[in-house]
Amino acid sequence: MEIAIDDDVRKAIELVRMIGREYLRPLGMEADRQKRPIAPDHAFYAMVAKSGYMQQGLGGERPAKPGERRGQSAVRNVLVAEEGSYWDRGAMVSLPGPGLGGPPVQRMGTPEQRERLFAPFRQRERPVWAAFAMTEPGAGSDVARIQTRAIKDRDGWVLTGQKMYSSNSPRAEWVVVFATIDPSLGRAGHRAFVVERETPGFTILRVEHKMGLRAYETASFSLDECRLPADSLLGGESYYEGRSQRGFEGAMSAFNATRPVIASMAVGIARAAFDLARDVVVSDFPIQGEQRRRRALERLAGIRQQIATARLACLKAAWLLDTEQPNALAAAIAKSYAPPVALAAVETAQSILGEAGMLQDALLEKLARDVKAMDIVEGTQQIQRRVIAKNVIGVLGGEPAGA
Ligand SMILES: Cc1cc2nc3c(=O)[nH]c(=O)nc-3n(C[C@H](O)[C@H](O)[C@H](O)COP(=O)(O)OP(=O)(O)OC[C@H]3O[C@@H](n4cnc5c(N)ncnc54)[C@H](O)[C@@H]3O)c2cc1C
User: Fold this and answer.
1) Looking at ligand 1, which atom is closest to the CA of residue 143?
2) Would the CB of 177 count as within 6 Å of ligand 1?
3) Nearest to 132 by CA among 38, 314, 254, 226
4) Please, which pLDDT band fits residue 396 given cuts at 50, 70 and 90?
5) Which of 132, 135, 176, 211 to mutate to test the pocket of ligand 1 (most atoms within 8 A of CB)?
6) Is there a catalytic annotation at residue 347?
7) β-strand partners of 206
8) Residue from 271, 168, 163 nearest 213 by CA
9) 94 lines ligand 1 (CB under 6 A)
10) Topology at the third CATH level for domain 246-392
């Protein structure tokens, strides 16, 4: 692995650091206190749109051809996500852009679909969001069980079903919705559609009250006989021909792009907790005795080591993606490793700070509530271990393992 971070990536990190200090953290804290997401018409989002931020990470209008370098879009995505989440992971996810809806369009969409769907993100006049919806009341980890039904009719498709925990969907211009043409087919029935906001029958049912990460909305919605044009099927009919699980594989391929990003967000949270604890140890602990100071520093050293390892795992998964190599194993390793590191960092910081780490309205108390979801989104630890196990069997059987 050889990663030389290029100037564009450095600039992107610097921009997010500036936005993070000035806006993400204060707005994230305010949203947490008020138990309300940041309003979509907040002036901050207009400013972000004007900065050109929405265009970052679109990764061009087409995926790279085999053997062609795509630049560092995946590496940039993980480092920017880490930096933004250092300041506030909830506010970071609330930023305008295609979000989790981007990778499936990038990987499964036709050139026309990519052009059409990404066009709103190429302007700077107004903030625009997109979203991704796989999870259903009866299908979380086991995505093969989705029941949202897609029925083909003469001039398009009709979608009926219910989705839950879809982030940013209430403000999204479009949502990538995974549905099935026949639930009895399992994975082979999966198809990905783009549902535009104004589609009749698309109704937001509920915005969840989350324990943390309150700056963005996570919502349930229903699709009540939503009639969609034929070109709302991602990739078109031909994409699904020939390979029976192409729709499911498309979703998994999108997860390979998004898991390292979510993992790096956990790294950002871990860094925030680490810095809080380090500052307290440096400023207060000399007064509180050498032994206590040494014990705290030892614990911090352990956390620092884990943060460095987690960051490398994320970078490796991203680098593989940027260099057109299989990264399923590396993405699963990053996603299974980083969230427990963040949890340990927050817990360690809380025990170093003592009661100050539990006080409501304090950043650390908020981080303790924010961090849990990092293990859940884009597949829990148990699910990542299943992916790792499958790859291990691949290694033993002499098949390519992805990393
Ligand atoms: C803040 C937040 C934002 C989210 N945003 C989105 C979004 O934008 N779009 C979207 O589609 N979804 C989103 N999700 C949903 C998320 O992807 C699911 O919650 C996640 O996949 C787990 O599904 P579940 O909650 O149904 O848990 P379940 O699948 O019911 O799992 C419950 C427990 O059982 C374990 N488990 C399940 N199956 C197995 C197995 N085979 N072997 C071992 N253990 C197993 C799991 O690890 C977990 O511990 C979001 C969730 C949260 C919390």
Assistant:
1) 21
2) no
3) 254
4) low
5) 135
6) no
7) 220
8) 168
9) no
10) Butyryl-CoA Dehydrogenase, subunit A; domain 3 (1.20.140)
